[in-house]
């Protein structure tokens, strides 16, 4: 194709950049499918490991395939003493997203398959990243608090092990289930900014660790994954349900963004929100603290009434993670621990039918001119 399309779509709004068989986002029906399965059905009836397998292989695993997948993931969780040493050298006030971005980059230095961009090598690397990212997130977080790392436990599920390495204990099954559901809901979402970043890096022929390092950088931004942390900061700032409506009016007066609301694709509601809200409500019951969900309910109702803007997944995920006992700076790294599955699926898809991603820009700078005499 040699034609130049002159219409500029700022933010690539509405641009269809490629085909993909990984997931389908359907804003007209507020729905989302992974490989054809509705995300809310997967969240309710499957484990995160089954969904990871589905995203990477196109089909749900049978019992033997799932057992093999779980075994492979569980046996790859340990990180090297060298990475532990690097993590201990991170400044204690480093943001965990910067820590995990650096750790993933370091994992690339250590990986025996780093430079091999063939599909089998990418799959091996993806499995190692899936398994090791929680260990690295937890080690960095604990080091920042002066705590020793906790060794991963291969007898635990992915979700149970995440609690184990971060908090040193596994909570009640209903809390683990709510966390597992959040991992499933966060796993994949079409050509979002971080996934498109991963595909762009991959399109140059670069390797998985490079693509994932760049994707983590993209995910950190508050307009993308960073919003789940911003939501909890916002709720903490509001402080109590009685103050929610007034606080929101102040935001409207300043034409400020309200974090956890709005979406580039869904304009009538994010398909993942009802499921996550239900599990966040369960967490509020388990913990016996209704304050955050009550505030959330008021904010959501006011935003809809006054602005016609719906919440996105980050809105219920923020308070849910807080109620599960995670510190706020861990919220977006949890998104990384899940989204590595979607990123890797897209990297494999991009590599299988690659063309360099290289759009054009319309020049608006100075007209061509002569150099000053010298
Ligand atoms: N608070 C207040 N107003 C908003 C919000 C919001 N959260 N989101 C959109 N709007 C307003 C916009 O200001 C705009 O108003 P205008 O027409 O008067 O200028 C209108 O709604 C339309 O919004 P767009 O700018 O077209 O939305 P866009 O698709 O460019 O941006 C985005 C989407 C970035 C998600 C935006 O809604 C936003 O910044 N939300 C807050 C951050 C957030 O929650 N991000 C998480 C995204 S989901 C995820 O990563 C899992």
TrEMBL record:
Catalytic activity line of the entry = oxaloacetate + acetyl-CoA + H2O = citrate + CoA + H(+)
Give, as in the UniProt entry, the pathway in which the protein acts: Carbohydrate metabolism; tricarboxylic acid cycle; isocitrate from oxaloacetate: step 1/2
- Lineage top rank: taxon: Bacteria
GO terms of molecular function: 2-methylcitrate synthase activity; citrate synthase activity
Q: What residue range is the signal peptide?
A: none
Instruction: Provide this UniProt record's keywords sorted from A to Z.
Output: Acyltransferase, Transferase, Tricarboxylic acid cycle
Family statement: Belongs to the citrate synthase family.
Protein name, UniProt field: Citrate synthase
Q: What's the source species for this entry? A: Teichococcus globiformis
